[in-house]
Amino acid sequence: MERPLTQHITFPPLEIRQYEAIGGYQAVRKAVRHMQPKDVTALVKESNMKGRGGAGFSTGMKWSFVPMDVPGPKYLVANADEMEPGTFKDRWLLEGNPHQLLEGMIVAAYAIQATEAFVFLRWAYKDAAVAIRKAIAEAYDAGYLGKDILGTGYSLEMHLHTGVGRYMCGEETALLNSLEGKRATPRAKPPFPQVSGLFGKPTIVNNVETLSFIPHIINKGAEWFKSLSRTADGGTKIYGVSGRVRKPGAWELPMGVTMRELIEEYAGGMKEGYGFRGVLPGGASTDFLIDKHMDIQLDFAGVAAAGSRLGTGTMVVLDDQTCPVGFVHNLEHFFAQESCGFCTPCREGLPWTEKLLWAIEQGRGREEDLELLLRHTEWLGPGNTFCALAPGAMEPLQSALKYFRDDFERHIREHRCPYHDPEPAIPASVHLHHTHHL
Amino acid sequence: MLSMTEKEKIEDEIKQVPIKKAACIEALKIVQEHRRWVSDESIRDVADILDMSPEEVDSVATFYNLIFRQPVGRHIILLCDSISCYVMGLKGIHAELTGLLGIQYGQTTADGRFTLLPNPCLGTCDHAPALMVDNDLYRDLHPAALADILEKYT
Fold first, then answer.
1. B43-52: which pairs have CB atoms within 8 A and are 24 or more residues apart?
2. How many whole angstroms separate alpha carbon B27 and alpha carbon A411?
3. Contact between A170 and A206 (Cβ < 8 Å)
4. CB-CB neighbours of A55 under 10 Å
5. A62 vs A76, A185, A204, A300, CA distance in Å?
């Protein structure tokens, strides 16, 4: 099985000479010397590479929206602000093979004729910061960055930007505001960043895993990329599993492996004494899948058909001894905290869902709370908010209400969390006179 | 007042960007690197240097989780409170840690040694539960391991 993305991952990562010795920077040489920018974009488009950050939009298509006849600066940004709860795939690529990312960035930058490139790295990834800083310096020394790259006349400057912590920075327009030194609130679209992005100039933002794949597509072609996959979505994908499984971890596998293979084979199945209840297939902002979905193929279409999203491809498993209400409360606490506060449904609605869930988890929930939670999943759903944060936050909630409704009802009926508390929080007689607490 | 070093570093950052304001986050990071936190006075100083209003600088400073607008201890503990850590035993880690330190989230120990903060997902979910002390990441945590970890920081 080919593992182009991860086969050369080492700790510490390869230095530039070692990376060149295994064929590194050949894609840069090939692209800038022998390909027109539009041909690079066309090749990536033909490969059908879909963005690995979560949205799954065609990478080549995204690049093709950049106006090529506009003078002045253009920007390329690697989104390395990995902060989706349950996601730990980009850290692996960043710490283990920074030159692969840089090479992909240089090729992508050439394709859109960018003048400057940024790695937007989250603060917590300290080892990655060291690795990338070193790799950038090495790439400058070797002539892959700076003025007149490899004597071709193409020039590119690259910078590392470390963030100061906010989930919103993962949203590409919010990320651009943050790079401009502002609050990371999302921007209205259109105009899309491809036309008017960083400092109002054409800008492409791509995920680390997406960009790390670009050198391999340049070297080996679109057909090879498609052949790596078991499905129409090409390539390999980094999948991960965390939670109470025997062997939590991340693996590069053909796109379209089944959930059963991933959880049972690679993650070794559930830990001794724990049963499987469900899984968030692609990070905190994806709908739960349950045992009946075990044989679905994990590609963009396969997970969508099962009612969820591939997202980041890193799964969080819910076991039978973890309270689903507590689990979802933890997620909504995160989303409520990380909401940028810019639009009302998200700013007001998320804390409300968090409080409702906490009340239920504490044994203070009432029957009508479930209806209220359900209505929130509509009020905060797609089309009602400025960006995808709140709709994403509603995905695990709406699916938990569907698949684990019994657990919610039992909390309310018994006035306690059956997983944690042996005693009811509120004696039944008191509850009879309980008034609306919202 | 900002030190000469802080000023020089901020001026260097201004040179990197097309408009002064764009250096705001970098300027706040520089101040925090030197003083551990960003005071009202520093907000005004940064505003002066960037031709911004103090309110605008403060709106940026207070937006981000890791710019501190209150004094903090010599070491910052960031305890991951996101989902994989929640499943894998956050509750026990949190109980032991707050017990050892005698403080809750957002507080600093009386000797000024530690500030304890919750932090969203640290991106090491296959080794949950996890925390960071300053620049150091600790993974696969067990409550019994915490005392030794704290011992390393004076």
1. B45/B1, B45/B2, B46/B2, B46/B10, B49/B2, B49/B7, B49/B10, B49/B11, B49/B14, B50/B10, B50/B14, B50/B20, B50/B21, B50/B23, B50/B24, B51/B20, B51/B21, B52/B20, B52/B21, B52/B24
2. 49
3. no
4. 15
5. 12, 22, 8, 17
The number of residues in chain B equals 154
CA angle A168, B93, A126 (to 5 degrees): 45
Q: How close does chain A come to B6, measured CA to CA in Å?
A: 17
Q: For residue A42, count CB atoms less than 10 angstroms from its CB and return exposed for 0-12, middle for 13-18, buried for 19 or more.
A: middle
Residue A43's contacts (CB-CB under 8 Å, 6 or more residues apart) are: A35, A60, A217, A218, A221, A222
User: Do strands B114-119 and B75-80 pair parallel, antiparallel, or not at all (unpaired)?
Assistant: parallel
> Is the Cβ pair B87, A322 closer than 8 Å?
yes
The reply to whether ipTM tops 0.95 is yes
pLDDT of residue A433: 44
Q: Is B147 helix (H, G, I), strand (E, B) or coil?
A: helix
Nearest CA in chain B to A183: B60
In tens digits, chain B (154 residues) has pLDDT values of 999 999 999 999 999 999 999 999 999 999 999 999 999 999 999 999 999 999 999 999 999 999 999 999 999 999 999 999 999 999 999 999 999 999 999 999 999 999 999 999 999 999 999 999 999 999 999 999 999 999 999 9
Q: Give CA A381 to chain center in angstroms.
A: 19
CA distance B51 to A228: 53
- Reported as half-sphere exposure (CB side, CA atoms, 13 A), residue B93 has a value of 29
**What string of DSSP letters covers A69-124?**
T--S--EEEEEE---STT--HHHHHHHH-HHHHHHHHHHHHHHHT-SEEEEEE-TT
Q: What is the spatial distance between Cα B43 and Cα A219, in angstroms, rounded to a whole number?
A: 50
Searching chain B, which residue's CA lies closest to the CA of residue A80? B123
- Decide: A398 and A391 in contact? Cβ < 8 Å: no
Residues of chain B found within 8 Å of residue A165, distances taken between Cβ atoms: 64-66, 119-120
Q: Which residues pair with A30 in a beta bridge?
A: none
Q: How far apart are CA A202 and CA A73, in angstroms?
A: 8
Contact A83 B123 (CB under 8 A): yes
Mean pLDDT of chain B: 97
